Amino acid sequence: MRITLLFLTLFAAAANAIERPNIIVILCDDLGYGDLACYGHPHIKTPNLDKMATGGIRYTACYSAAPVCSPSRVGLLTGRSPNRSGVYDWIPPANEKTKRPDAREQVHLKADAITIPKLLKKAGYATCLSGKWHCNAIFNSPAQAQPDDAGFDHWFATQNNANPSHENPNNFVRNGKAVGPLKGYSCQLATDEALSWIKDKGAPATDQAPFFLYLAFHEPHEPVASPPALVASYQAVAKDKEEAQYFANVENVDRAVGKLLAELQKTGKEKNTLVIFTSDNGPETLRRYSGAGRSWGRPDPLRGMKLWTTEAGFRVVGIAHWPETIAAGQVIDTPVSSLDFLPSFCKLAGTKIPTELTPDGTNMFPLPGKRKKPLIWCYYNAINEHRVAMRHGDWKVLAKLDHPKLKKTSNLHSGNAEAAKSAKLTDIEIYKVTVDISEKNNLAGENPEELKQLKTLLESTYAELIGDSPVWEPK
């Protein structure tokens, strides 16, 4: 009853333009499901996030839009599977002269895409991106759409990672102008920029204009670098200096979140600000590539890692905090997704979703019951062999794509799109993840009727998705 009453109050407030909430999405990069103390990590100290969770909702079945960075971010911003935007894998940097047989230098979130910041901006919100962008191949150039084209009034960002590391990055761009070398750590710098913007641009003295802030940390993605004092504090419990670096990196994120929350409280904005904390995908595999020597993220108790279509690829931490509106102390296992942000935020802002947009997400507040659409992921470059996954109710479904001409790929282009469209879904596995979060027991053989129904649903859902997936033409 308490939750129902609180959310009735929430929707009443959303109907009043003056009381519409500020909205902040904090997105980590490669954070493991088990990397926070409130999600069971035995050593990493995350008191600010723990407090945020106990003061609001901690989701145990929160999903990102993809098991890798760029499509995950595109899905979050658009409320639709990133495949519908033609973003199928991480986007490598390119220049205008680059030509690749798979057309990856062309991949970007297009200027005409309908996004959260665009919709909220039309509704009178001020909008800001601070941190990692990674939604195009050609950054800070008119050759491709940039953060302002996606609806951000103010942006302070990098194309991909902070270089040369989180410490003293030199590749930030502010509203189209390179900033140059900076002193400090990326998450703290991004937070300071966000707080400065809130003070100067996002919240006028009259408090009539609400704001939307997308605070996208680079941490704890490689190349990991952390404050020496924090690293030293973990030496006794870490396996080596590299693991201590990772532990300290996550705590540094927690401190940045604490700084943000403290300022919201100090300025009286906390009560009318919804803050959501989550990650773009699961943790990187230690030493998967030469620069991943500090990738000590934990997927526990999930199976797989980043780049997998098993749960650890895209089941991520999820915390929602909004004092006096969201009841404290909730732990919720109902599936939610970053795809749900767009319809949820539009509802809170009192604005309608354009008729030409059909979101794949649904309103999170109050919690969704039975979804009109199942959650589906199709990652053609997955490390595991099952490239298609679906969450429907209590069930997780995995399937291989069978076609002789469909190889692992990072992009759909004219050379492989037909194979992807005609591929058959085979070797289907089903898991009741409400009781088997680790996906240990494939129940396909024990539940033939359930398997039949889920297979039919998966086939129709995949067919609809692939039919709406753009194809890039190599030049």
- The name of the CATH architecture of the largest domain is 3-Layer(aba) Sandwich
The computed structural class is alpha/beta
Distance from first to last alpha carbon: 59 Å
Instruction: Outline the biggest β-sheet.
Output: 11 strands, mixed
Q: Please count the helical segments.
A: 11
The shape, in one word, is globular
Report on the architecture of this protein.
The chain is an alpha/beta fold and 475 residues long. It folds into two domains: 2-349, Alkaline Phosphatase, subunit A (3-Layer(aba) Sandwich); 375-467, Arylsulfatase, C-terminal domain, CATH 3.30.1120. It has eleven helices and 15 strands. It has helices at residues 2-15, 47-54, 69-78, 116-122, 186-202, 228-233, 241-266, 311-314, 341-349, 417-422, 448-467; strands at residues 22-28, 57-63, 126-132, 154-158, 173-174, 177-178, 211-216, 273-279, 315-321, 330-332, 336-337, 375-378, 388-392, 395-402, 424-432. A hairpin with a 2-residue loop joins strand 5 and strand 6. Helix 5 (186-202) packs parallel to helix 7. The protein starts with a helix and ends in an 8-residue tail after the last helix. The model is unreliable at 1-18 (pLDDT under 50).
